[in-house]
Amino acid sequence: MTGVVHPLKLASLLLQYPDGDLLHARGELAAAAEGLGPGPQADAIRAFTRWATGIEPAELQARYVETFDFSRRASLYLTYHTLGDRRQRGMALLALKQRYAAAGLDPAQSTGELPDYLPMLLEFAALEPEPGLAALARHREALELLRAALHAEDSPWAPLLDAVVLPLPGLTRDQLTRIRELAAAGPPEEEVGLEPFAPPATMPGVG
């Protein structure tokens, strides 16, 4: 990893499961974070990389699984937060896939992930900032729900969500109301299966 790395590209990598390749690259990722320069977004990313480089690999992996795989409220699949496993979610996933295709990208082909997987959206925003940030903004409520869940658990990954939302427009009062309603109720309960997509195994102020 050479040169200045887009902060959302770094966030994309740091929010993925720390497999062997990412564990091996921890020092390089931390160095890239240090090279971002001043600013709250860079500071938030550095807060995570400084923690992640000081923890044993096995513990880092275990903490990741505990954080993201065992809690519905910390799902990295954004449409799940607002639509659960209802039929509407399949349409939302299709819309995201079409956004990628319009930009000439097909990230799911190489990763096998659903289109709403947050690291995939962040990679999109790093490669194609205008449509990518617009796609993230469309899922702002889900981002805030995930962000709030991580902060509630005092998770070391929480600063990465702070970094993700910083370049997005401020929240409207309607969005804040919706976030509070969803936070109280949790993801909508399953009504029907998703086809052709399979489901994945401190409140903010008004901007």
In one word, what is the shape?
Answer: globular
Total discrete domains = 1
Sheet having the most strands: none
> What's the helix count?
13
Roughly what percent helix? 55-70%
Give the overall pLDDT as a whole number. Answer: 87
Q: How far apart lie the N and C ends?
A: 35 Å
The proportion of residues in beta strands is under 5%
Please provide the count of β strands.
Answer: 0
Q: What is the CA-based Rg, rounded?
A: 16 Å
- SSE string, helices as H and strands as E: HHHHHHHHHHHHH
Uncertain stretches: 192-207
Structure classification:
mainly alpha
Descriptive account of the structure:
By secondary structure, the chain is mainly alpha-helical. The protein has one domain. Helix content is 62%, strand content 0%. The chain contains 13 helices and no strands. Residues 192-207 have low confidence and may be disordered.
Present the secondary structure layout.
Blueprint: H1 7-14, H2 20-24, H3 26-34, H4 40-52, H5 57-69, H6 78-83, H7 87-102, H8 107-111, H9 118-127, H10 129-138, H11 140-152, H12 158-165, H13 173-185
Keyphrases for this structure?
207 residues; mainly alpha; 62% helix; 0% strand; disordered C terminus
Provide a concise account of the structure shown:
The chain is mainly alpha-helical. The protein has helices at residues 7-14, 20-24, 26-34, 40-52, 57-69, 78-83, 87-102, 107-111, 118-127, 129-138, 140-152, 158-165, 173-185. The protein has 13 helices and no strands.
